[in-house]
Write a structure and sequence with these properties.
Chain lengths: 387, 407
């Protein structure tokens, strides 16, 4: 028979546990990635009170309505209506962006956090993001920004010039448009990229690829690196979990690969939804066939977030099986992400099979054996941007 | 122990409930219960109803638009039938309309055996826009035009771009009363050099179009019209005399395509005949083909179309391949891949057509005009920017080749 406790004891224990929790919170120091708190330097920036509108590109006026042709939603907006991304609106037959020059998030992190592994390993980046997103991923990790409009987040007031200046002040070598879907602030992102190029910084675009071909082409020409999420390989997954469609993403991937930008692909494996070996195999085959076997594929581990808090993280053996399937399908560089300490986060030479870049999670590059874009040991050219 | 009591009580009550004969509930009780349940349900429903989509009305000050009252104006092409019926002879659908009914277009109504148009001086759209937006590339490049449209259409294209206008009835969407004089006045005030009948099928506001065209000619402006070519020869010939340019939307090149996607059972020859009539008339002709992936992007059909144009119309007629964006009933389709359009461009060029363009593609070299003789760039187009670089008085500056069009 279980030991019974009386009411007094119960209350005592509860209070003790609660006070312990409160005390622990005060004692334990917050954990930041890297040595110093990277966001501290940027935290003193004042917030902007109101939202201002800037005329957008990629739209067509149709009668009193406006059709935004930026992403494959192709929203038809009546006067005063706001698009699916929550940040583009029709006002008097003109489409306006409500986030131009108004990022809601600024942070510094190494390029590996992209994850981007074949481009300038270890450089420090300034990451910007604005509110809004054209997708509705149920496992979104940035939903506090991506699933809100520009008037619901706290925004800074930063012109493209000040963004690049801030990157220079913080010893960054690149500007990354990430976290939410940067296509919703395409005009701003492109202006930042142009300004960065002018001052000798790299620019990186981290997107889900749910973009019309035309803006995708232009983005590929503006940015040095385009990292695209191929979230699954079935229309059902895109429809149910992501809230988009697969076909336009594949078209955008092909378009991006044809431009001058370096392309890496990311797939987040959600257990029982898109982690089957057949699906990963088909996805990898498609990449090898339509893009190139040299394109790095990152398989990310899923952690419960947003509307999928009740699902377990991806099991480790599933990630390894998926990596095997992708390698068997012909891809040369397949990485596993969000799993610190695994062997698949390093780069191995496809020829001599030796480890040429050793990484510690997304934090740091410990060892880099690439000299002039070639493996130091056997001289094989490693695809990527290395200097 | 207590649990058992509870359960038995519940069972007892339950049995009691269902053993009650129906007659024991009085009418008063029934009504009371019904009303209570109803109001409770309504309350819950109201409480749970999703919030309306948030508009950014705080920083987009929008004025509500007005619907102007309908006016009647007698139609010009119809036949009277016995018993107050009439038959429309404007376009090949030949609607037979009883008293009080409307035609297929939704813009014409039979009242007491007289056929009236409801959209006369009832414009739903009158906006100054670049001429290129309406697929005219050989007509006053880079200039502005006042585009006019009313409600209603005699086609039901599943990919319609302007469906909020064309697939509505005149009383359903915001509109304003604009007489022919007002239209010309507005065009002059907005610094427009032309008036374009666009948005919906201008055939269905034939009388209005004719009056505006006459007035515009009097004022010395250019008139142009977009059309699907689904019109009888007589009205077409009548309107052709007042139009400087006509852009025919040749939607596909099979009868099945028209039937399946545009809602018309028509022999393709009828549309092609209309194109021939326009070609013989005074007005200049441009042809647009909206390329919808998987529906009409077959290279064989594009090749057939190009050859037909070369054989029957001539090689100097501009042919536009427009990019399709998901819309209306094909909203879940995907936009035309740029590769498909480039392939169509090559096919038409190889068939011998001199001026082939890609529309709705932003920055693309196939949106510019090149001299068919020496290959020099004449008009450079990129997004909304138009630069006339190598042309003077309708001639190539390099080789003095004459370019067809209104310059």
């Amino acid at each position: 028979m279980e030991k019974e406790i009386n009411r007094r004891e119960f209350i005592q224990w509860t209070f003790a546990a609660a006070s312990f929790c409160l005390a622990a919170r005060g004692i334990a120091a917050p954990v930041y990635r890297g040595k110093d708190d990277p966001t501290r330097a940027l935290r003193d920036l004042p917030f902007k009170k109101d939202v201002h509108l800037t005329e957008a590109r990629y739209y067509r006026a149709i009668g009193s309505m406006v059709q935004c042709v930026l992403c494959p939603e192709y929203c038809m907006l009546k006067d005063g209506e706001i698009g699916r991304c929550r940040v583009r609106l029709n006002k008097n037959r003109k489409l306006y962006s409500a986030v131009y020059g108004q990022p809601c998030s600024l942070a510094l992190h190494p390029i590996e956090q992209g994850p981007i592994f074949h481009v300038y390993p270890g450089i420090r980046c300034l990451a910007i993001a604005t509110a809004g997103c054209n997708l509705r991923c149920k496992y979104c990790q940035n939903w506090q920004m991506s699933q809100f409009g520009a008037d619901e987040t706290q925004n800074y007031d930063l012109s493209p010039k000040s963004v690049v200046q801030m990157a220079l002040d913080n010893n960054c070598e690149a500007v990354v448009c990430t976290y939410t879907e940067p296509i919703v602030y395409a005009e701003y992102a492109m202006d930042v990229a142009k300004e960065a190029k002018r001052l000798g910084l790299k620019s990186i675009f981290v997107t889900a690829g749910y973009i019309d071909q035309e803006p995708m082409k232009e983005i590929g020409e503006c940015f040095d690196v385009v990292r695209i999420d191929l979230k699954g390989f079935t229309e059902k997954f895109y429809e149910k979990i992501v809230g988009g469609r697969l076909k336009p993403v594949l078209m955008a991937l092909e378009t991006a690969y044809k431009t001058s930008a370096w392309v890496e692909v990311v797939t987040l494996l959600v257990p029982n939804f898109n982690d089957s070996e057949e699906e990963i195999s088909a996805l990898s085959k498609w990449i090898a066939e339509h893009l190139s076997p040299d394109v790095p594929l990152h398989l990310l581990r899923f952690f419960p977030a947003y509307k999928m808090r009740n699902f377990p993280p991806t099991p480790e053996n599933i990630l390894q099986l998926a990596r095997e399937a992708a390698r068997n399908a012909g891809l040369k560089f397949v990485y596993i992400g969000n799993w610190p300490g695994n062997n698949a986060e390093h780069t191995y030479c496809p020829n001599c099979k030796r480890r040429i870049i050793q990484r510690v999670s997304y934090l740091a590059v410990v060892e880099n054996n690439i000299v002039d874009g070639r493996c130091k040991f056997c001289g094989t050219a490693i695809p990527g941007r290395w200097s | 122990m207590s649990v058992v009591t509870h359960q038995s009580l519940f069972l007892y009550n339950f049995n009691l409930e269902i053993n009650l004969p129906m007659s024991q509930m009085t009418r008063r009780d029934f009504i009371k219960k019904t009303l209570l349940t109803g109001s409770a349900a309504t309350g819950v429903a109201l409480g749970l109803r999703p919030q309306p989509i948030r508009g950014l009305s705080d920083f987009a000050d929008i004025e509500p638009e007005q619907v102007s009252p309908l006016t009647l104006h007698e139609a010009s092409y119809y036949e009277k039938l016995p018993n107050l019926g009439i038959k429309c002879t404007l376009e090949p659908r030949q609607c037979v309309i009883n008293e009080g009914e409307r035609g297929y277009c939704g813009a014409r109504e039979n009242r007491g055996g007289v056929y009236y148009t409801l959209v006369y001086e009832h414009a739903c759209a009158a906006y100054p826009e670049p001429i290129e937006r309406h697929h005219f590339y050989h007509l006053l490049p880079g200039k502005k035009a006042l585009a006019i449209g009313t409600a209603g259409c005699n086609l039901r294209c599943r990919f319609c771009e302007t469906w909020p206008i064309s697939q509505s009835r005149p009383e359903d969407i915001p509109s304003e009363k604009l007489s022919a004089d007002d239209v010309v006045e507005r065009a002059l005030a907005e610094d427009c050099q032309a008036i374009i009948f666009a948005y919906n099928e201008p055939t269905i506001y034939f009388e209005y179009m004719l009056d505006i065209a006459k007035e515009t000619k009097r004022a010395g402006l250019i008139t142009a019209s977009q059309t699907a070519g689904y019109i009888y020869p007589e009205p077409l010939k009548e309107i052709c005399e007042y139009l400087d340019a006509i852009n025919v939307d040749l939607k596909g090149f099979t009868k099945e395509y028209y039937q399946k996607n545009c809602g018309v059972k028509v022999q393709l020859e009828r549309i092609l005949d209309a194109i021939k009539i326009i070609n013989q008339s005074y007005s200049i002709l441009e042809i647009t083909n909206l390329v919808v992936p998987e529906l009409n992007d077959n290279p064989q059909l594009i090749s057939d179309m190009s050859v037909w144009i070369r054989e029957n119309i001539g090689t100097d007629v501009p042919l536009h391949f427009a990019r399709f964006f998901p819309n209306y009933q094909l909203a879940k389709h995907y936009a035309t891949p740029l590769e498909t359009l480039e392939k169509a461009y090559d096919i038409a060029k190889n068939a011998g057509l001199q001026y082939v363009y890609l529309d709705n593609v932003g920055k693309h070299k196939a949106t510019s005009t090149y001299c068919p003789k020496c290959g020099e760039t004449l008009i450079q187009r990129s997004e909304s920017k138009v630069d006339i670089v190598g042309m003077k008085n309708g001639q190539c500056m390099n080789c003095e080749h004459k370019i067809a069009g209104v310059w």
